[in-house]
Amino acid sequence: MAAPKKGRSASAQSRPGRSLALILIAIAALTGGMFASGNTTPRLGIDLAGGTSITLTAKNEPGQPNAINKTNMDTAVDIMNRRVNGLGVSEAEVQTQGRDNIIVNIPKGTNSKQAREQVGTTAKLYFRPVLTTEVSGAEASASPSPSASGKATDKATDKATSSSSATPSATATSQGRAVTDALKADSTPSASSSSASSSASPSASASADPATAKLQAEYAALDCTDPAARAKAGDGAKPTDPTVACGNSSGQWQKYVLGPAEVSGTDIKKAGAVFDTQSAAGWKVTMDFTSGGSKKFAAITGKLAQQQSPQNQFAIVLDGEVVSDPSVSQSLSGSAEISGSFTQTEAQDLSNMLKYGALPLSFKESSVTTVTAALGGEQLHAGLIAGAIGIALVVIYLVIYYRGLSVIAIASLLVSAVLTYVLMALLGPAIGFALNLPAVCGAIVAIGITADSFIVFFERIRDEIREGRSLRPAVERAWPRARRTILVSDFVSFLAAAVLFIVTVGKVQGFAFTLGLTTVLDVVVVFFFTKPLMTILARKKFFAEGHSWSGLDPKRLGAKPPLRRTRRASAPVDTKEA
Fold first, then answer.
1. Residue 196 contacts by C-beta under 8 Å, 6 or more apart in sequence?
2. What is the spatial order of strands in the sheet that 282-289 belongs to?
3. What gap in Å lies between CA 339 and CA 156, rounded to an integer?
4. What is the pLDDT of residues 232-284, one digit of tens each?
5. pTM of the entire structure?
6. Alpha carbon 247 to chain centroid, angstroms
């Protein structure tokens, strides 16, 4: 009785029906998610779908005539790549051209305006103390506003508040978390003293310092309602010098005189976009400083907290424009946040730029052109024909050589193809994956990897049958040996794909990503579909009895006599003789 119990236990442990049900439920769920998301086709790369090509030309920095060099250009390409590509498979190409040009190719289907802002924005961030500020333009008042406010990407504004109330951009917490940022107020005593002694603007008192006089003239002439004037405001100013700048508050442009920068974007350790559920601020950008940046931030906010408005404010300046200008009531350290009327996209873009760092150079758009997909479409058509021919040859080989077993192999290939297609469609909006020609090649190569796993399993089963075993025990004995071989083979393929993905850039990464994805799917399909299906079909008479078209005919395979031999019948005992 022990042997039958053991057989029933082994059968119960295999549970092929559960494995098949699990993978079919997964396929149904993924397919449903694909249709629910509305993305029923994979996102195509620029070579297949066309897109936009942007040429950026580097500009020399003031006082740095040799800033345009190979090192800085390569650094800029790397930062732009990380900004627009994320995981590196969204198919946006960034590469240098000549000495001072960078070409950015953005595939169709990507938000080209958003991508242009990502690659073209220098993202140089400074925290500067506010020396004085007032409304700019026709509605400008004679005295500066008691508490300024700033704007991010021309849409995100902070509400202005009086110096006696907390601004929405800067709120200190009991844990020492700073809600806003400030910068260097004591590095320019001449500018600080002149602005502090004046009641409205730096032009209220004359200064013998030519630099101060120039700053006063720039501030007096600055009209922030003029886009051209805004673009030139503070142009050429060094971080160590005071400067003028523009910012927007609730539809009103403000002009500022700002002190030298003490904290910069390089002092930020990490940044992220967070939705503030505790207030009406909405989306905000949080920042954590490095140890050195935290000390600088605590020092400057401690000094600003002792000043009167507007000298107790500091301006967060991104690429020359005031993003926010919170006031400070106590020393802050560790972290800070930029709040305002950000949308989710604006907050994520700003945090992305801060996280990946500022470009070492400033760039201007030289040209923006549209790229057609005519050539890529022809290549894709040829590639699909090649893939179809390859699949047809594999199917013909399986039918001729494995006969009935080819049904299992073809069904497994179909399941693998469905999973690959659905995942590619879902990964487009999820991580920006774009299907390009090398990625299509990777998918075609994966057909051979998947077919190889079936062949290993089938040959192991045939070896067991040649040893004289019946089909059901042959399947169970062959699986552990085949499983080990399949895992080793797929691990090597996945390792090669991972190394290729890490050490390469551009389109080759698409090939590596697709190869790695399909290799993982091969393991899933073999374990959860091929093996359970083979176990179920081994119970069917057509396969179990070794039909000539089953592919498991013992005679055709040259099977040995059965290993389990029947006992010889003992001679009858003569009871009389006994």
1. 131, 307, 311
2. 268-276, 282-289, 335-342
3. 8
4. 887 777 888 888 989 875 567 888 888 888 788 778 888 888 887 776 667 88
5. 0.57
6. 31
